[in-house]
Amino acid sequence: MNELSPTASLIAAAVKVLAVFTALMVAIMYATWAERRISAFIQDRLGPNRVGPFGLLQPIADGLKNIIKEETNPATASRFFFVMGPMLSIMPALVTFAVIPFAAPLPTPWGTVDMIVADLPVGVLYILAIGSLGVYGIFLGGWSSNNKYALLGGLRASAQMVSYEVGLGLSLIPVMMLAGNVTLTRMVADQQLGLWYVLPLSLGFLLFLISAFAETNRLPFDMPEAESELVTGYHTEYSSMKFSMFFIAEYAHVITASALMATLFLGGWDIPFWTGDNFIPYEGGLISGFTAAGEPIAAQLSIWTTLLTLGAFMLKTTFFVVLYIWVRWTLPRFRYDQVMHLGWKVMLPTALAYVMLVGGTILVLDQLGVSAGPGFGLALTAVSLVATGMFALYLDRGRIITGAAPAGRAARAAPAAHP
Amino acid sequence: MTRRTVEIPVGRGAEMGMDARPAMGPLTPVDVAEPDIGSEQMLINIGPQHPATHGVLRLICELDGETVVSVTPHIGYLHSSFEKLGEYRTYNQIVPLTDRMDYLAPLIYNCAYAMAVEKLMGIEVTERCKVVRVICLELDRIFSHLLWLGTTAIDVGAFTPFLYAFQERERIYQLHEELTGARITTSATRVGGMMSDLPAGWAQGVRDFIDTFPRTLNEIDSLLTTNAIHQGRTIDIGAIGPEDAIDCGLTGPNLRASGVDYDVRKDRPYYDYETYDFEVPVGENGDCYDRYLVRMEEMRQSVAILHQALDRLPDGPINVEDPRVSLPSKTDCMNDMESMIHHFKLIMDGINAPAEDCYFAVEGSKGELGMYLVGDGGPKPVRWRIRPPSFVNLSAIARLAEGHLVADLIMINASLDIVLGEIDR
User: Do B293 and A414 make contact, defined as CB atoms within 8 angstroms?
Assistant: First the structure.
């Protein structure tokens, strides 16, 4: 592995920032397009299909429309915070992407370029720290509008996001314990050698998935903008580009959360069942694995591997984005107190118990002398699957989310017939 | 604790230890305790322009956090003075007013009005007309329930069932259009019969609809009925017991969801409803979920009735041969003087109903729809009064919603299935 010179690494960083930002914005545009097309498909409609082939230019038309629309500033709004809101909400979603590795290292004549904007040693902590900032934009937007609906939306958003922050963080602790560090590149490398974390940490993945839905304020957790109750919640008073920025922020959050789930649980840019894309840092070099005798195999970098892994990463991210869209157009919305109930009384204890369970299992396996490898991963997988099954049983429908409803009522059949 | 004299807001009587019925009478000053410091309440105005008020309903809510302390419905934003207008129109000219009252089930209102006038005049419509009207009534029951289903689904955040429901509604719209030429303002009935006989192929169109409609209904059913979130949003929300429901004057699915087995089609049958084989679904708990289940089942029962009605649809004239109401044929008008004068009198003067009064009720999609008519022997009623199911059902919203959250208030409002055209009249 040849290092980049300081100048080259500076240029590489600038190019990467630009490229990732551009790619992310384009991805956001087409996420809105995908949402509209997929929702149309689900609902037996056509969706946007007039602007360009398959309506592919629709996001551009929408962007143009939003720019030329009239900007409204309510007279009673707190102007400074009113303008700050959308900016604050879009920023965290974009900067989170900086620590997500999106492809295998790229060999260039000047050295190997890591396909990550900033390979922070504290990647996961950075994500949690920045992710918490997202609530400020929404809350400030809702509060400064001086509108009761917006205020309620902002209140709900802050309460909900703070609550699910806890679940999000706790569901990541097993990942850190298993990986043994908090650097995202190391986590990807670890998953390349062993199993993807979705298997040994299935319950953690489930909890993270639910928390991520809540964090991004997407249905069934779209309390802050529940349009049937709060008109559109925190962005009721916003128009034009300021509204558009909230809109972009939502999709940026969705894509970032999807990329995060792909990285943390689905092996990042790893292509399964192929060792050619394995680039594990080992004693100063990159290796693709070990021979049966335990000798490291030097990795062969190539631009094609980089492109293929980039494709794999995008595919996994797209999978989660589509999942987001699919869920949104299938499920009804929770009620605000049910969301809080789920967050504090179900997610938090489960996540805590799961941290203990994974920690205990790792400790026991270490004590038994099971080395890191297939056996270790499979043992954890079995334990996690049992835990996931128990969690699913506990989430008996109508028992947890209804709260006050008498048990068994939900399972009741259709009403009695006329005598 | 200081005491002061305040006026009781409407609907808060029970909370203040008064009679359990909602205080709808004149406001009486009484002594009440001043609210505790710290329980500051927010007054929020929902509607008349709001995505979830199903029209131009305005709800003034007093909130403690997000808990509804009191809710006062304000109506009248769609007031059209239909009843008064009716006093200046001949009996057949009133028909177009009726479908504008419930634009979600126009045929039911057309039929109910025509049936009331026929009762006033003692006219027995033809067998074919009876069956055609049963088809109209049941088709529009489905039509109305589908709108309720779709909008209720939107109110709990599920957008997809709404579009599924509206695709089926679109097919009923087309049936309306084929039958009457209009999609919403059908004006299909005339005193003594229908505007015209069924167009060719219409009955088959209805058959095609009821053959495929249950599949869509089952799809929506699978999206909502056993969905944990939907159950969590509806079970035990806005529950009302049978006695209270009767006290509030609830009728239709709202009453039956509370466990009261009252359906005009069964209890005071008209148009041979007693000969149709159908069941009336009755709920147990009177909450939003039971109201949902009852309406879902009613749509299935309506499909069953439609099958039977189409099977027994007899041939024969659609309009009665009664010189008081039926126009002579065009050929007769052209060929003999008496028929032409008869035609002229019926068109220019209108139908003369006797100087009596009558009340006639049908089971509408939203409850018992009653029509009260007072004739004076002339061509116009001196009084036309409607027993509006939505109006009466809406009056229960204050007591249903108190103590629930704002989100539940929206759900309760949706589950009552109101239509503002008829509430404001």
Answer: yes
